[in-house]
Amino acid sequence: MTSDVGAMIIETLDRMLADACTPDQVRRWNAGDAPDALWDELVALGVLHALVPEEAGGVGLTLSDLGELAMLFGKHLVPLPLADTIAARALVAPGGTTVDEVPIVIVPAAAITQGTTLPLPLARYARLALVDEGDSFALVAAAAEESVGTAARIHLDSGGHRTFSGTADLLATAAALRAAETAGSLAAVLAMVVGYAGERSQFGKPLGSFQAIQQQIAVLAEESAAATMAARIAFAGDRIDAGRAGVAKLRTDAAARRGLAIAHAVTGAIGISEEYDLQLHSRRLIDARMAAGSETYWAERIGRARLSAPEPLTLDHVRTALAGR
Amino acid sequence: MTDLPLTDIPAEAEAIRPKVRALIADAVAGRSLASRARSWQGFDADFSRALGKAGLIGLTLPPAYGGQGMGAFARFVVVEELLSAGAPVAAHWIADRQSAPLLLKFGTEDQRQAHIPAICRGERFFCIGMSEPGSGSDLASVRTRAEPQADGGWILNGAKLWTTNAQHAHYMIALVRTSGSVDDRHRGLSQLIIDLSSPGVSVRPIADIAGDEHFCEVHFEDVRLPADALVGAEGDGWRQVTAELALERSGPERIYSSLVLLDAWVERLRGVELGSAAIQALGRLVAELAVLRAMSISVTGLLEAGQSLVVEASLIKDLGTGFEQTVPQLLIELGDALPPERRDEDYWQALRYVTQMSPSFSLRGGTREILRGIIAKGIGLK
Ligand SMILES: Cc1cc2nc3c(=O)[nH]c(=O)nc-3n(C[C@H](O)[C@H](O)[C@H](O)COP(=O)(O)OP(=O)(O)OC[C@H]3O[C@@H](n4cnc5c(N)ncnc54)[C@H](O)[C@@H]3O)c2cc1C
What we know:
By secondary structure, chain A is of the alpha+beta class. Chain A is 55% helix and 14% strand. In chain A, the strands form 3 sheets. In chain A, strands 1-4-5-6 form a 4-stranded mixed beta sheet. In chain A, a hairpin with a 2-residue loop joins strand 7 (201-202) and strand 8. In chain B, strands 1-4-5-8 form a 4-stranded mixed beta sheet, covered by helices on one side. In chain B, strand 6 (201-207) and strand 7 (213-225) form a beta hairpin. Chain B is globular and about 75 Å long. Chain B is α+β, with helices and mostly antiparallel strands. In chain B, 46% of the residues lie in helices and 14% in strands. The structure holds flavin-adenine dinucleotide. Residues 127-131, 136-137, 162-164, 215, 360, 363-364, 367, 369-370 of chain B line the site of flavin-adenine dinucleotide (FAD). Chain B: Keywords: Oxidoreductase. Chain B: Residues 127-223 form the Acyl-CoA oxidase/dehydrogenase middle domain. Chain B: Residues 11-123 form the Acyl-CoA dehydrogenase/oxidase N-terminal domain. Chain B: It holds the Pfam family Acyl-CoA_dh_M.
């Protein structure tokens, strides 16, 4: 459940982002215009410190609030690793060091190859990267090397390397954040597709009145609802863990896979055109699926965890390891 | 669509889990896997009476009628325990889930007193007469007809089909036409309580694909019913049935029908060198279950808070029954990687049974296509 402050902030941000992230603007950001004005606005609102405790000068939101925020960022196609930045700042906050108010992307260990990462979603405009060093984290300078839309390979420069004590599963964290952005994005896709089916007519009536189309969009709605719940599971409790985050990533990826296929089927040729806004979501959804552990990767881990858990009942495993709290 | 918040089962509802589990463990001990895999198709009147005695039927009903006055979450806990153990709950299932809440909501004080306490004791069994030979998905086309009599009573003629447990049930609550004609569709339908021991009622069980007999055809020939057979208002049957179906659709019984089988499979896999296909399949099933359960708990909370969630209940049922159907299909697809000494006939009986019955998971309680139609309308497609 979101906290009261969380709900208020989400409401404010929902409006602010709706105004700021117009489809045209998102296209410009995708093409390489840096979203500096948006970033400044977010900094001014204090969003970056959302998860930092109030005692430490932050907003003091809960982990479940972060999940709701990340859904919002997915819904509005925020072109920055904003959820990553909020999570990263919360992780390094106990160190007490001041960290520049710049976009931070979380780099799961598996994404590093000799200084340059594999392509990471939303990394294009990142200035810092949070990397895992086993029993500590480090913030290192990051610069995009090769970008497609908002995804990029980034070069990590350990020159400005700063170490922070503490541990967190960065792969699980990235998986949880991608899951939540995916859920938010899919909900937006559903709304777009329902709208399109009501407006576009063939054979003299709206597409949405054909039963074959209705049945498909109903499945998209189911997948969207399942994705939202899956994402929320990742942010239950007070720490992101691989079990819940894996469930979330696996289920939201599956929802994106099935849901996007339907969205594109219903919108026909225009759906894969640059001009139509669906692609703005499709591209992000595909980026997210390609990052932070695939469906198969997480399925394997969840399956192994079930087999090594002693409970005879899968219900008990789900209740204790994969439920709300 | 209503946003579904992640919801915890409250501690007081969780607190009854150990008691339920102990009672069930005794009841299922010694039952074969294939019998437990029958889930809510398993009929055992003694077990239902024992549950009633332990206060586990009518959990949400008021104590004045023999219920426990507890919340919907308590019922959720009991139901998921029963299903995941494969307890034989068919005898009291429909009365507990649908008939008693229906009578509480729409029945007269006499009707409530006459039936609800006996239902809560696990002694009175009900069945639901909606479908007919000519009316399946198109429920508003029912032809069974009750003619009002001068004394206020009714004379009933017609037939119901696929009525689960009619051969064991004491009463049926049926949707029948009480005025107008078939062309009037939703208007003129009413719900009546039918004492199945009345003269003119004949019940014939129908064998299913697995050789079991649970559903029946029920014929009515000039069956005389008293005036107080009517539940709620004459002509209000459609509205009442719609409310009833929402109760039926989002619960764990739309998710857990294959859990006994899944758990048996997990036990068989332990300690065996496995390929990735089986492990990944298991991971996918566990993840799906975790999400579906969270959705079902969320809807339980919202329904208790008084929200009407027809779309959400429908989408959970569609996803949930899809999961139930995937389990046996995957297990067959993966085959048995186990060495011969670990194979056992009981597992194969259970797998065969669940696979044979699995098409029914997305038929009973409203078919997949009907549910998707409800969802589409609910999100604004016309
Ligand atoms: C195990 C089991 C137990 C049951 N128990 C009971 C019970 O206790 N009481 C009771 O009243 N009934 C019971 N039923 C009956 C159940 O409610 C019906 O099977 C169900 O409503 C579907 O009706 P039908 O089987 O006549 O199929 P039909 O309605 O003939 O449907 C056949 C197919 O056509 C599709 N279809 C129908 N109409 C449309 C449409 N408008 N658009 C698109 N597709 C459509 C359906 O989705 C389905 O795929 C039970 C069924 C089963 C399998």
